[in-house]
Amino acid sequence: MKTHVVNAAREVRELAAGFEAYADWRRRLGLAIVSLRDWLDDQGLADAQVESRFTQVMERLAQDRLVVAFVAEFSRGKSELINAIFFADFGQRLLPSSAGRTTMCPTELLHDPTSPPSIRLLPIETRAQGAGVVEFRSYPDEWVTFEFDLSSPERIGAALAHVSEVKEVAVDEARRLGFVDDESAPATDAERVEIPCWRHAIINFPHPLLQQGLVILDTPGLNAIGARSDAVVFVQAGRRAAVVPSSVDPPGDDLNDAFRMSGGAASWSAGYERS
User: Fold this and answer.
1) What per-residue string of b and e applies to 188-218 under the rule 16 or more CB within 10 Å gives b?
2) CA-CA distance, 226 to 193, in Å (whole number)?
């Protein structure tokens, strides 16, 4: 257990140091862009089109986020490490990470200053509508939202516990939602199967690293049917991405390709597992 704690602490320090350097680079880049715009204006070289381009660049820089995804199979310590990094001050685990309680849907951890601390959940039934998670971000009415009080760890934990919820549905319904693969699924006479209640979760939490633009993606176990596709699509939509699996399990070629397509980097760290 000591080794795991030491490894987790090292991961926290390395992540914090790396992201502080990234945030400093963004700050210096922003100052350089403003300086260039002012110089062009002083020289009489700026016009409406140039000003529009500068505005677009500054808006993109302000919206730019670094996505760090934790990828491994079930019960390999992904949520445990996230608890250690972001919720240690509460003195207890807030994301489900104990035996039998695990993250069942891709879960983002970020900070949006325009919204209160909360968790937003996209119902699993939206998989049948043909639109990706990114598209559903534009439709807030499709999400179920639970706000929480930052002064109450118990209420935060109760809200975040929703990411581990499952339910039983008929096999035909599970097939319609993409959770039954007739070619690879083992033969069974079961009339009902267990699937996640939620397709995607977004946790809005004011941690200093998240306030600087870091986004954490906690994935379900990669051995979960249907889990990989939504995670891959989410990563492809990001501008920067890094993979940090908390075990030695390979992430799979599709996730590797998705991170390369996003312009990100893949970093494999195998020193930490939950005991």
Assistant:
1) eeeeebebbbbbbbbbbbebebbebbbbbbb
2) 13
Contact, 263 vs 239, CB < 8 A? yes
Q: Could you give phi then psi for residue 138, rounded to 5 degrees?
A: -85, 0
Nearest to 216 by CA among 198, 204, 233: 204
Conformational region of residue 40, where left means phi above 0, alpha means psi within -120 to 50, and beta covers everything else = alpha
- Rounded to a whole number of angstroms, the distance between the first and last alpha carbons of the chain is 7
Domain boundaries, the chain: 1-64, 65-266
pLDDT in tens, 205-216: 999 888 888 888
CB-side exposure of 95: number of CA atoms within 13 Å?
32
Residue with tokens 């677009």: 56
Nearest to 242 by CA among 263, 272, 273: 263
**Residue 69 belongs to what H/E stretch?**
strand 66-70
Q: What predicted TM-score, i.e. pTM, was given to this entire model? A: 0.72
Q: Of 114, 25, 106, whose CA–CA distance to 71 is shortest? A: 106
- In the predicted model, residues of the chain with pLDDT beneath 50 are 1-2, 5, 184, 225, 239, 246-251, 254-255, 258-275
CB atoms within 10 A of CB 231: 25
- Closest C-alpha to 103, from 90, 91, 94: 94
Question: Cβ atoms within 10 A of the Cβ of 219, count?
Answer: 28
Identity of residue 249: D
